[in-house]
Structures are given as structure tokens and as C-alpha cells.
């Protein structure tokens, strides 16, 4: 008994040791497995990072550049496959593609160029200079030829997109609460610049009084329109930062810029119809008012139709609305030119888009984005074609100096009169200065309307072509001078003279604005 107990205890100790050793081994074996799993997981996580850093295939900006280049090349391949010789050097489609590509590159280059303490210049300036370069560089000008009919159709289509954006951009509430000062700013400076430019063009540019006053009015309406492409982005940036929000200055200038364009386009088409029409002036004026009335009525009817068709329960509603809106407006503008009712198409487009957009309420934003995508395509074409219309060889030696002088005097009258119109509106002196100078940039409407006089003169009145070419040159110089300077003035002067409010805390209702 005595000897067996120790043996039993010894055996029990061995059993306990033997039972615990597998657990220890299992525990010890599990640690390497865990470390292996963690190492594998870490290596698997690092693999994608290594692949991202590798330069084959390229990533980021280089990949995007190669992709866009291949897409542009394939666009030419498809065009060549469909049209054949027209897409080769000397053909109209080849010239159009060259201008389109050059304008895109010019706009991108201008966006890349950034100077310290200077606001970003509008890309449309690079597009304009790219078209001018294509026209005046010897090798490019020899292989780039563009049909006048194709160029005219594209510019009129771009005009349609501009008018649709203007109609959709009109805010009824802003017009209601800012109607007094908004109407004064949209109509007064444009009309006073029209009169002053007509008189100045007679004395400086030798426009005869007999019909030159009307052509001078056409020129002045080209110069009189302010550009939403420059004003609206600049004002939206100031509004986001809270500058001038308390008195609604950005909202005022955004709304007035659309009305200003409407007045300029309507006045230009009316004057142009009178200048290039046969018969006495009274009958031409009456026919122009007839075209205006027909355009407003047709636009109102089509606007009410698009307002309710398609209905809200349909799928892809914004796409259908945008398609109907663009197709109707393009048909109205181009069809109006076909039947000789030039002023009717533009007004039809404005009324149609305003009535339809007013009924879509907040859903209008989705349609505006689609229209904005269409504008991104037509903007390079428009400014590239305008730049390509200006030839240095065809300019007279003193033409540029006379055009710059006319433009400067008309701008001086416009800025002074705009300052006078802002009096008695509750603005401070420095705010009046800012509004007057902000009403200077010109781009979009000048690019659309400038070539129209030259185009009409080539078709129906060749003896007026020299004067129409002066109108085209003035439009080009107006964009070249006022667009970058206006953007810089707004970007630098706005934060210095406008009162800043915290945009996160500031919620201003238009009904609270005390503007008259």
C-alpha cells in the first residue's frame, strides 16, 4: 500500500503532463499559424498598392490623356468612314474637327495656366485664340477649309443652346422681388450702349447714316450684351464665399445677365432683318414685330405642351424633357431662318424654355445639367469658329485701332450709365462701382451674333460685307479684351468691396431685400 501510492501519484503526474503537452503544443502551433495569416493578409493588402504605384499600365492623368486622345482619333475615324474625302485635309468636316480639337486644347491650356493672386481666366478665351491661330498660321490655314453653311448651322445651334440656358436660368422669384433694379440693369445699359455705339460707329467707322445707323444698332447690340459665361461663374463663387449675399448682389447680376442677353439678341435680329430686307423701313419694322408676336405665341403654346408632356410618372423624365426642349428650340431657330422669320425663332426658344422650366419646379435642375452637357460640346465649336472668322490679312492697317477706340468709348458710356442706374437702390458707393464694372464682360452673345451680319452680307448684300466684317472684328476684340479683364476685376474687386457674411449662417430670403 505504501509503495503503490507514490507510484500512482507518479503515474498521475505523468498523465497530467502528457495531457497538458498536446495543449501546449497546440497553443504553440497556433501562434505561427496566426502570424502566417497576418503576414499573408498584409502582403495581400500591399499587392494592390504596389500595382497602383507601377507605371504599366499608366494611371491618373496620363491614362486620361491617352484615353481622350484615342477617343478623338476614333471620332475622326468614324467621320472618315461615313463621309470619306470630307474628313481628309481640305474637307469641311476635317476643318471642323481641327477647329474643335484646337479649341478644346486651348481651353484646357488656359485652365492649366494659373497665376498667383489672379483669378482663373475663362477657358473660352483659349478657345477663341485657338480658332484665331488655326485661321492665321500658314500651314494650318491651307488645309483647314470650312463650309459657310455648316459653320452657320453650328453657330445657330449654339445660339439655341445659349437661349435655352437663359430661359431656364430665369428665376421668377428673383425677377419678382428684384424686378425694379433688375429690369433697369438689363435694359438701360444695353440700350444706352446701343445708341452711343451707333453714333460712334458713324464718326469713327464711317457707317453711312442712311442705313448705317441700323447696322450700327446691330453692332451695338452685339457689344451691349453681357456674358453669362463669365458673370455667372464669378458671381456663384462670390456667393459661395458669402460676398454681397446680404443685399443679393450675385443674385441680381445673375438674373439681369439673362434678361440682358434676351434684349440684345432680340434687338440684333430685328435690326438685322431691317438692314438686309428689301422694301421701306416701316414695312420691315412691322414685319419684325409680326415675327416677334408669332415667336412669343408659338413659344407659349409649345412651352405649355412640354410642361405637361411627358408626364411625371414616366421613366427617364429629365432626358425626355431635355430632348423635346432642344429639338423644338433648334427647329424653331433653324426653321425661322429657313422661312425668313429670323426674330421669331429666338423669342420662341426663350418663351418655351422659361414656361416649361417654370412648371418643372426643382426638377428643372436635372434638365439644366443635360443642357449644360450639350453646351460643353458646342462651346468649343462656337468660340473656335468665331476665332477662325478673323483673318489678319483681311484687316486694314487702322482697323484694330479704330475698333478698340469704338469699343472703349462704348464701354465707358455703359459703365457710367450703369453706375447712375444703381443710384437710389440702397447700395453703397463701392458696391455701385463693383456692379458697374461687373457689367463689362462680353463673350457668348458676341460669339453668336458677330458672324451673323457677315454671313447675311455674303448671301444677300455683298456691298455691305466690309461693314459686316467690322462688326465681326468688333465682336472678336470685345471678347478678347473684356472677358479676361472682367473675370479678373470681379475676382479681385469683389472680396475687397463687398460685405462678407458667413454662408453657413446666412440665409437670406429674396422677399427681405430692400431694393427698388
Automatic annotation (TrEMBL):
Chain ranges passing through the membrane: 88-110, 211-232, 288-309, 321-337, 373-393, 399-421, 474-498
Q: Which UniProt keywords apply?
A: Membrane, Transmembrane, Transmembrane helix
Q: Where is this region: Disordered?
A: 1-61
Key word Thylakoid present in the record? no
Where, subcellularly, is it found? Membrane
Q: Where is the composition biased (Basic and acidic residues)?
A: 42-54
Keyword Transmembrane listed = yes
Report domain Cation/H+ exchanger transmembrane positions.
119-486
**Primary place of residence?**
membrane
Question: Of which family is this protein a member?
Answer: Belongs to the monovalent cation:proton antiporter 1 (CPA1) transporter (TC 2.A.36) family.
Q: Write the protein's name.
A: Sodium/hydrogen exchanger 9B1 isoform X1
Q: Which species?
A: Vicugna pacos
Amino acid at each position: 500500500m505504501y509503495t503503490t501510492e507514490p507510484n500512482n501519484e507518479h503515474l498521475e503526474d505523468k498523465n497530467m503532463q502528457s495531457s497538458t503537452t498536446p495543449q501546449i503544443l497546440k497553443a504553440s502551433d497556433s501562434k505561427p499559424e496566426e502570424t502566417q495569416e497576418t503576414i499573408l493578409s498584409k502582403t495581400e493588402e500591399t499587392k494592390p498598392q504596389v500595382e497602383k504605384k507601377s507605371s504599366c499600365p499608366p494611371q491618373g492623368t496620363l491614362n486620361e490623356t491617352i484615353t481622350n486622345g484615342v477617343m478623338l482619333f476614333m471620332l475622326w475615324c468614324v467621320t472618315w468612314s461615313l463621309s470619306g474625302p470630307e474628313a481628309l485635309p481640305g474637307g469641311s468636316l476635317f476643318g471642323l474637327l481641327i477647329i474643335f480639337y484646337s479649341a478644346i486644347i486651348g481651353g484646357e491650356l488656359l485652365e492649366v495656366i494659373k497665376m498667383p493672386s489672379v483669378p482663373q481666366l475663362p477657358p473660352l478665351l483659349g478657345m477663341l485664340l485657338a480658332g484665331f491661330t488655326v485661321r492665321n498660321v500658314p500651314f494650318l490655314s491651307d488645309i483647314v477649309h470650312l463650309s459657310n453653311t455648316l459653320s452657320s448651322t453650328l453657330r445657330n445651334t449654339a445660339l439655341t443652346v445659349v437661349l435655352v440656358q437663359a430661359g431656364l436660368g430665369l428665376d421668377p422669384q428673383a425677377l419678382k422681388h428684384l424686378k425694379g433694379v433688375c429690369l433697369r440693369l438689363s435694359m438701360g445699359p444695353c440700350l444706352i450702349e446701343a445708341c452711343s455705339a451707333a453714333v460712334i460707329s458713324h464718326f469713327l467707322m464711317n457707317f453711312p447714316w442712311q442705313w448705317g445707323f441700323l447696322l450700327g444698332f446691330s453692332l451695338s447690340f452685339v457689344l451691349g450684351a453681357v456674358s453669362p459665361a463669365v458673370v455667372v461663374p464669378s458671381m456663384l463663387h462670390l456667393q459661395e464665399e458669402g460676398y454681397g449675399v446680404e443685399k443679393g448682389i450675385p443674385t441680381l447680376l445673375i438674373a439681369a445677365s439673362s434678361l440682358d442677353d434676351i434684349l440684345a439678341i432680340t434687338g440684333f435680329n430685328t435690326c438685322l432683318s431691317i438692314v438686309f430686307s428689301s422694301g421701306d423701313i416701316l414695312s420691315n419694322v412691322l414685319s419684325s414685330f409680326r415675327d416677334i408676336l408669332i415667336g412669343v405665341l408659338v413659344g407659349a403654346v409649345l412651352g405649355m405642351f412640354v410642361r405637361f408632356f411627358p408626364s411625371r410618372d414616366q421613366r427617364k423624365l429629365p432626358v425626355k424633357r431635355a430632348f423635346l426642349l432642344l429639338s423644338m428650340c433648334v427647329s424653331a431657330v433653324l426653321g425661322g431662318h429657313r422661312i425668313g422669320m429670323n426674330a421669331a425663332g429666338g423669342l420662341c426658344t426663350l418663351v418655351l424654355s422659361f414656361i416649361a422650366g417654370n412648371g418643372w419646379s426643382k426638377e428643372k435642375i436635372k434638365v439644366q445639367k443635360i443642357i449644360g452637357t450639350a453646351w460643353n460640346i458646342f462651346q468649343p465649336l462656337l468660340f473656335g469658329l468665331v476665332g477662325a472668322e478673323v483673318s489678319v490679312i483681311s484687316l486694314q492697317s487702322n482697323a484694330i485701332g479704330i475698333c478698340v477706340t469704338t469699343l472703349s468709348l462704348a464701354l465707358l458710356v455703359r459703365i457710367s450709365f450703369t453706375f447712375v442706374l444703381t443710384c437710389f437702390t440702397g447700395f453703397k458707393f463701392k458696391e455701385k462701382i463693383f456692379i458697374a464694372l461687373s457689367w463689362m464682360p462680353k463673350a457668348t452673345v458676341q460669339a453668336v451674333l458677330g458672324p451673323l451680319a457677315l454671313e447675311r452680307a455674303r448671301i444677300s448684300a455683298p456691298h455691305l460685307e466690309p461693314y459686316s466684317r467690322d462688326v465681326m472684328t468688333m465682336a472678336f476684340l470685345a471678347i478678347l479684351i473684356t472677358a479676361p479683364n472682367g473675370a479678373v476685376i470681379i475676382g479681385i474687386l469683389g472680396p475687397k468691396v463687398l460685405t462678407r457674411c458667413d454662408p453657413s449662417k446666412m440665409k437670406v430670403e429674396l422677399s427681405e431685400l430692400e431694393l427698388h
